Amino acid sequence: MSQPKITPSTNLTKPKLDLSSYGPFIGLILLCVIGAILNRDFASWGNISNVLTRTSLVGIIAIGATFIIISGGIDLSVGSLIALQAGVMILVLNAVFGTLGASFATILIGIVTALAVGFVAGLLHGFLITKGRIEAFIVTLGTAAIYRAVLTQLAQGGTITFTDPKLSSLFEPLYYGTPLGIPVPILVFLAMALIAGLLLNQTTFGRYVQAIGSNEQVSRYAAINVDAVKIWAFVFQALCVSIATILYVPRLGSASNGTGLGWELEAIAAVIIGGTALKGGSGKIFGTVVGSILLATIGNVLNITSLISEYLNPAVQGVVVIVVAFLQRNRK
Amino acid sequence: MKKILLAFGAAAVISALAFGQDTMKKSIIGVAIPSADHGWTGGVVYFANRTKADIEKMYPGTTVIVKTAKDAAEQANQVQDLFTVNKIDTLVILPYESAPLTTPIKNIHDKGVFVTVVDRGLTDESAQDAYVAGDNPGMGTVSAEYMGKKMNGVGNIVVLRGIATVIDNQRVDSFEAVMKSKYPKIKILDKKYANWNRDDGFKVMQDFLTRFKKIDAVWAQDDDIAVGVLKAMDQAKRKDIKFVLGGAGSKEFIKKVMDGDPLITADVTYSPSMIRDAMNLTAKARVTGSKMPVKTIIPSVLVTKANAKDYYFPDSPF
Questions:
Q1: Which domain holds residue B153?
Q2: Residue A83 in contact with residue A242, Cβ under 8 Å?
Q3: A155 shares contact with chain B (CB less than 8 Å)
Q4: How many residue contacts between A and B have a Cβ separation below 8 Å?
Q5: What is the reported pTM?
Q6: Which domain covers residue A279, as residue numbers?
Q7: Largest CA distance in chain A
Q8: Is the predicted ipTM greater than 0.85, yes or no?
Q9: How many distinct structural domains can be found in chain A?
Q10: How far apart are CA B233 and CA B297, in angstroms?
Q11: CATH number of domain containing B239
Q12: Are B183 and B144 in contact (CB under 8 A)?
């Protein structure tokens, strides 16, 4: 379990050893021990890399969600946004592949498309929330419905896929590639966690995000440009979704109405399990990373054993989430 | 009600006989279906719109109005609007959910509208004149028969289930029943929900591959799940699995069968085109006055390389 080695410098008092803030980490270790006892293949590198790779997609989105939630906002549109971005990215690639072929330019266009859609969506969210003065919950609930509907329209209710198999093979290394023996999504996830950790704790932007989440009014008195910070936080979240899209598309080469369904709740759950307060103010990127891995691991442990009936599996996930939240309940 | 219908029917037949085609009964047919929220319903919308054009061409004067709904409440409103605003005399409906739509359908049925229910039966059968549906238990049976035979009755399989619903239970129960009685040496290693989508198919299959070192075949039950299954096998470079059986008859998979894909050797239909069959049967009964069977079950058919071209609709979204 690699972790970004960042000590939060926001604590002005000397940091005390606070067991409760390690709740999710302890939960994850317990879960891994149980998994390894139930099936010795759990600890195999193959399985670990499967779990971490599948964590990466929601995990990267959850990193963005950490900023939004710390700033006191919420983004319910991320699951729909990944579906829309994936659909648009595939359609654009299908259109340009005829002329550009299997070239670096094609890959670049795919990546830029996903980032562009994300950038526009993030700006839209930010402006509607700050300048339009609409609650983030409502804005993103609305755009979530819009994005998914537009994708369904583009797909004519079906599935958008790469028309040329050569496109799939061109993009596949972005998901299935393993430089240094580690799958690309895991490397990207770690890099994103490091960058986000630095951004949150070592930059003025990060401090402002935390300040606004603690007390928006006081932040305004302190001459912080609250609107700008909020807009950029939503842009950062949407760009995180773009990066997840760039990794998601090569996996199956398709997008449909079901793409990313419920991912917003998974991302929010990862953030909260990781110790960020839903009311905002403070939080940890490392916690979010652990929270995401924990969520994916529960499903994996249940899949590689048949201890509990297939009908009750979701209940086990519910129990684990509540237990972990209990372990870290005293954090302020 | 039946008497009125019979009288209508008789009158239609007599007039058709006496005056030929021109005096066939002109009908206004409302078609209420779920909106295209996933591949299969996308296919339903496609076939409904295509059949609308066919019917209006075949029976001049007959109007077909297609309405799609995103949930049961919206569909209930559409049923009312179709009756009061569009003045339909016939309704073909694929109910979003059975229970909440039974009363609205019964209301207009009691006022004389002929009702054909598709795929999902109403809780009160007296509210419908005809029922047209796919064969879920049959889909499980056909799949099990094919796999059992192809594996010569021996081997290990894994099963990926859909979403926990009656449809999924019927398929899986009848699949297991065949395996138990006819192919007892085929072992179902485990079965887990993959929710009829590609991402979950990929994830569940990855974990099956971690857990079981020797799998001979996979029953994915659904073509979308099978897409994920194939990718997971590809990634793990597993060669022990001899074939994967999907289901529903998506164009992508029918094409694979047609082209002789080594892993996708067959498919089992549960086609969204059942809406087309329902609309055609209903329109024929209403316009010509012939009697429509009370229950029509569209059988699930095994598609192999030999007959795949009959089930290939390249311009359908599904």
A1: 136-268
A2: no
A3: yes
A4: 94
A5: 0.80
A6: 44-327
A7: 61
A8: no
A9: 1
A10: 35
A11: 3.40.50.2300
A12: yes
